[in-house]
Amino acid sequence: MYQYTSEEAALHALGDKIMDGGQINSREKRLKKEKKDGNNAQSSTEPVYVGHMLNGGGTTYVLGLLHGDQLVELTSLSSIQILRGKNESSIVCNKKKCEVTVKFCVIPASEERLVAGMPGPEDASGIDFGACSGNTIRDGGGFEYKLHMEQLAMEALTVNDVAPTTAPINDAIAANGSTANDDEMVVTAFEVSGNIDYSKLIDKFGSKPLTPYLLKRLENVTVKRGTVDRLHRFLRREIFFSHRDIEKICELLEDWYGISPPPEDGDMDETSANCANVPTTPCPFYLYTGRGPSSSAMHLGHLVPFLFTAWLQKAFRCPLVIQMTDDEKFLFKGEYSSENAGDKGDADPHRTGDNLNHFASLTIENAKDIIACDFIKDKTFIFSDLDYVGRMYPNIVRIWKAVTVNQVNGVFGFDASSNIGKVAFPAIQAAPSFGSSFPNVLGGANGNASTLGCLIPCAIDQDPYFRLTRDIAHKLVPRHHPLQGKPALIHSKFFPPLQGAQGKMSSSDTNSAIFLTDTPEEIEKKIKVHAFSGGQETKKLQEELGANLEVDVSYQWLRFFLEDDDELSRIGEEYGNGKGEYWSTGKVKAKLVDVLKELVADHQERRNYVTEEVVKEWMSERCIL
Question: Are 177 and 100 in contact (CB under 8 A)?
Answer without folding.
Answer: no
